[in-house]
Specification:
Elements: H1 2-9, H2 29-37, E1 60-65, E2 81-87, H3 102-120, H4 128-134
Parallel strand pairs: 1-2
Length: 139
């Protein structure tokens, strides 16, 4: 969802890529449903390893899954401006039958608020890295 939001709200300012240490090769169908509901592209997304992105020069790395907070990032990412914007994993949240989409909606709106805050930052600001990291505290 974060990748889709940054691509959409950033309107071409950024290329966004989503990857992780233990890819499942699929995106949860309720994540795609939430994207569709909010008018965002849902095609072409898949769960990929961050090793698949090692050839791309990145300016920023944002981890969003709570479970990745203490994971070691690959060496090629260590010199990049980094922030952890931990968000709960929607499929692991309990929800009443018929309301399983609600945790996905909540995660979507948390990520949307954070992406919007990121897009407001001025990367030439000497406080940029500090402000970038603080975005992860927005609810």
């Amino acid at each position: 969802m974060a990748e889709a939001l940054l691509r959409d709200l950033g309107r071409g300012r950024y290329n966004a890529f989503s990857a992780g240490s233990n890819p499942t090769k699929m995106v949860h169908p309720l994540s795609l449903e939430v994207l569709e509901k909010h008018g965002l592209k849902q095609e072409g997304f898949y769960s990929k390893s961050w090793e698949e992105l090692s050839h791309i020069n990145m300016d920023y790395v944002i981890t969003v899954c709570d479970s990745t907070a203490n994971e070691e990032c690959p060496v090629y990412l260590r010199s990049i401006v980094f922030a952890h914007w931990g968000v709960f994993d929607p499929p692991k949240q309990s929800a009443k039958v018929g309301q399983e989409i609600l945790p996905f909606e909540k995660a979507f709106f948390i990520l949307k608020k954070r992406v919007e805050a990121f897009l407001e930052l001025d990367s030439t600001d000497v406080e940029f890295a500090k402000k970038f990291k603080k975005i992860g505290k927005l609810k």
